[in-house]
Design a protein that fits this description.
single chain, about 170 residues, alpha+beta, two-stranded antiparallel ribbon, 4 helices, about 30% strand, globular
Length: about 170
Amino acid sequence: MVLGTDVGALGRGTSYAGNTDTLELITINPKKQTLTTTAIPRDTLVRVETKNKVEYTKINAAYALGGPREIKKQVHELLDVPVDYYALVNMGGLENTVDAVGGVTVNNPFAFKYEGHTYPKGKQYLNGSEALGYSRMRYDDPDNDYGCQKRGQQVLLSALTKVNKSKNLCK
């Protein structure tokens, strides 16, 4: 599972855990040599037991409430699949990862501007800062969070494809 927290860039520090606004369950089948990503909507309602009470909250707050154990538990209960491993990436980590693989290529479904960047419709190359903005914009997307998730998956899959082709991040 890949968890993207809303801290670590854009002037947001890392003094709190943050919400996991991006939740992607990645299933790898080595026999079939397939990789499947499942985006979990950040506003999905879940039941979280804390020390003092039971809270009904959005799944993106489960990490801030109970850390990795809680978010893994919530995803397991929601989808009835085990979550064996997870990667936690904050916004700065996304920027750095995209830059480390030499940028990503995406196919933007519509033109928009966000956080000082312009994203024309169609295929384009993005550096880390551009990829972060591309994957975060949701309010002007006709599909709201779903469109945001699709663009985030494009960034993630493009980066994973480049890593797989290179077989190694070290040079």
